[in-house]
Design a protein that fits this description.
With 650 residues, the chain is α+β, with helices and mostly antiparallel strands. Helices cover 40% and strands 24% of the residues. β15 and β16 form a beta hairpin.
């Protein structure tokens, strides 16, 4: 089943969407990996969806906008709202689209994980869905945007170059040579082979130059074919969506559409709806599984209580049914133990068993401590207490049976309650499956791995992590610091360990920010200090090894060798909402680090205001800006102790 658009799909959709040139941008929405641009066109309203790594087309599946716009949303709105679309194009034959709106260009990368990047007129990155660094390019604020390394464009390749490329590896099958040497997927490589009249598995070495010219012509014909958008169905299920009629799908059931956007919207919309259905029922299904497991345990308990009540009742009845025998046995056993003692009594019973004595053979266990003898009667083991009467012995079993019945009744109520809850859950699941799916519903996200630490993204785009306590300090250094990172620490007792991920590549700005973070998140903040010293070192210098006779507690480490000091670092931080890895986070970090990722933030420093009051004030400011932040999140992000608001940058 197709999950994302191909280069060919993008070629056709970009050609189709030229009708949007001149449209006005009303508003921009961001939800996860999706960017939706609300447009005013000549025909009226239109919604253009750009989903990183997946799709780009007009859509009628409009989700409810998140209540709190992300910082990425705010930046896009700031630079794009009110602007007009001047150009929509595909970069070469890659899975990259460019939407130029005034002085800015929104770039959608639809390959692999994908990304959405906003660049200015000088091709500098203003914002991105996610910031990343690759071997040959950086997606970072203010960095120059570079396209991925160029690949061969099949639409521009000459006949001579085409033959040269295909013959570079003549042992390859035709379909593999086309897919590998030219920028196309295996499906279109197979389609071109069919149109050229060759089996896709034909080795290139068996094809003449004349044959390859047929392949070349078939390629040009395919990529310039007349649009005939359709969804391909396999066994009644969605299988593919394509812009043209493909021979590889001859015989398949198809649904045709007037525009490719309509086909893409129907295809990806149905997938989105189905995923929403799964998401909506997932929680209920988990509850159902838990209730079924509880039900099974309760059934086992009921069975045990029922058997316990029945067995004890039967033994009590058995004692009375054999009244004379039990009374005689109790009397004989009492006299024997009083006269012989328990040791000699046990010996006499064992001798009696060997001799085949009926009474001795009935005895199964002797318990001197409880002054009891267990006999077997009608296949049941009956424990008789010699210091109790026959009635008292029977009553012990009746009392046990009564307790089991009480437990059974309680367990039965719990069982019926669980069955009722299960019935309710099954009803809710059935309703979810029947009702119109609500794709507007926003699911709670799972926390990212780095959120267990204090963290921020530096102004240069590096992830910086800090411990929250002894445990997270220990975990950070032992599990998450590697040789490519840098280590920072403040010259303050109780300061967190700080790690710059991939810090060997970091510049002075990031190192300064990380060290400032280390001093600001230390106990120096709560003491009202305004500056402190910190240093950075290499991971190889940080160890648990101590001089002989010394011991390091949890979260403590030794640093050997040269320490690179930064003196008089100011204890000053900013709080803002930034977008990182496609999600919004409230982050407390050095001012320059926050400033690089958002235009709105609150600058704070050590002060007399209690932390609870400071949290409430900052939360109020963020809410005015449209961000809904829980007090718990803010409390966890801020440094220890109180503080004061120095500046509000709006």
């Amino acid at each position: 089943m197709k999950e994302e658009m191909s280069s060919v799909d993008i070629r056709y959709i970009v050609r189709e969407l030229q009708s949007l040139v001149g449209s006005r941008v009303d508003k921009v929405y961001h939800d996860g990996d999706e960017i939706r641009i609300k447009l005013r066109t000549k025909e009226g309203r239109a919604d253009l969806i750009l989903q990183a790594g997946r799709r780009f087309h007009l859509t009628s599946y409009v989700k409810e906008a998140p209540k709190s716009p992300s910082s990425f949303t705010m930046l896009l709105r700031k630079h794009l709202s009110g602007g007009f679309i001047d150009e929509i194009e595909q970069h070469q034959f890659d899975r990259i689209v460019k939407i130029r709106i005034g002085d800015y260009t929104l770039i959608g990368e639809l390959f692999r994980r994908g990304n959405v990047i906003l660049v200015d007129g000088e091709n500098k990155i203003v914002a991105a869905l996610r910031y990343e660094e690759y071997k040959d390019r950086r997606i970072m604020p203010k960095a120059e945007y570079r396209f991925p390394p160029a690949r061969e464009n099949p639409l521009e390749v000459t006949r001579e170059r085409f033959i040269e490329l295909i013959r570079e590896e003549e042992e390859l099958e035709l379909v593999r040579a086309l897919a590998r040497k030219l920028n196309m997927g295996g499906m279109y490589a197979e389609e071109i082979s069919i149109r050229a009249g060759f089996d896709k598995t034909t080795p290139v070495k068996e094809l003449s130059d004349k044959d390859l010219m047929k392949v070349y012509e078939a390629m040009m014909e395919t990529f310039n074919d007349e649009a005939k958008p359709n969804i391909v169905l396999k066994d009644g299920n969605l299988h593919d969506v394509v812009p043209i009629e493909l021979r590889i799908y001859e015989g398949f059931e198809k649904r045709y559409f007037t525009t490719f956007s309509e086909a893409l919207d129907e295809y990806f919309g149905k997938i989105t709806l189905e995923k929403a259905r799964v998401e909506q029922t997932k929680r209920l299904e988990a509850k159902k599984r838990a209730l079924l497991a509880t039900l099974r345990k309760q059934e086992e308990m009921l069975k045990g209580f029922e058997e316990g009540a029945k067995n004890n009742q039967e033994i009590g009845d058995l004692i009375y049914a054999n009244y004379s025998l039990i009374e005689r046995l109790l009397e004989e056993f009492r006299k024997a133990t009083e006269k012989l003692g328990w040791g000699e009594f046990r010996k006499r019973i064992e001798e009696g068993r060997k001799a085949g004595n009926k009474i001795a053979l009935m005895v199964k266990a002797i318990d001197p401590k409880e002054k009891a003898v267990t006999i077997e009667l009608d296949g049941k083991k009956v424990k008789l207490y010699l210091n109790r009467s026959i009635g008292e012995n029977a009553e012990l079993y009746y009392e046990k049976a009564k307790k089991f019945r009480h437990k059974y009744e309680g367990a039965l109520k719990a069982y019926e309650d669980t069955k009722r809850k299960l019935s309710e859950i099954e009803g809710l699941i059935e309703e979810e499956l029947k009702k119109e799916l609500n794709v507007k519903r926003i699911e709670r996200r799972r926390k990212k791995w780095f959120e267990k630490f204090r963290w921020f993204v530096s102004s240069e785009g590096f992830l910086v992590l800090g411990g929250k306590d002894a445990s997270t300090n220990e975990i950070l250094i032992k599990r998450h610091m590697d040789e490519n990172d840098l280590y920072c620490h403040a010259d303050v007792y109780g300061a967190p360990h700080v790690v710059i991920k991939d810090g060997q590549k970091a510049g002075e700005k990031t190192i300064f920010e990380a060290c400032q973070f280390a001093v600001s998140m230390s106990k120096a903040w709560s003491r009202g200090v305004y500056s402190e010293d910190a240093y950075w070192a290499h991971p190889s210098q940080v160890t648990k090894q101590t001089p002989s006779g010394e011991y390091l507690g949890k979260g403590a480490f030794m640093v050997y060798g040269k320490r690179n000091w930064l003196h008089g670092l100011p204890l000053k931080l900013a709080v803002g909402v930034i977008n990182y890895e496609g999600e919004d986070f409230v982050v407390c970090a050095p001012v320059n680090a926050i400033k690089a990722h958002t235009t709105r933030y609150v600058v704070i420093g050590p002060g007399r205001m209690k932390k609870g009051e400071l949290v409430k004030k900052i939360r109020g400011i963020l809410e005015k800006w449209g961000y809904r932040v829980r007090e718990e999140e803010l409390n966890a992000a801020l440094p220890p102790g109180g503080g004061e608001i120095i500046e509000v940058v709006d």
